[in-house]
Amino acid sequence: QVQLVESGGGLVQAGGSLRLSCAASGLPFGMRGMGWIRQAPGKEREFVAAISRSGGSTVYADSVKGRFTISRDNTKNTVYLQMNSLKPEDTAVYYCAAREGGSVFATSHEYAYWGQGTQVTVSS
Questions:
Q1: Distance (Å, rounded) from C-alpha 56 to C-alpha 19?
Q2: pLDDT by position in tens, the chain (length 124)
Q3: Which one-letter DSSP state was computed for residue 56?
């Protein structure tokens, strides 16, 4: 059973920071590329960030580049998303996702496993 459990979401003021965590189990975490995808109310899902299995390669959506940082700790089977300088338009449910392969992909349909999501709300 593959399980991805996000945590760290909540309410934060614009300009603030938040760190999301995703704990993975039931898969060889160190061999899989990981990503974060978000979905705002009434909008389509949007790729946010991805990281290769070793952490050597990362890719970001233009909307978050320079503000968000994806990282992983393979000894803890955990991937993180550090979000700084948050804006109201960052408000969304954030999903952790895992690929079958180890490389990075910037499209959400390349991810086979998904967490339940964690809500991030940024106030003005």
A1: 20
A2: 999 999 999 999 999 999 999 999 999 999 999 999 999 999 999 999 999 999 999 999 999 999 999 999 999 999 999 999 999 999 999 999 999 998 898 988 889 999 999 999 999 9
A3: -
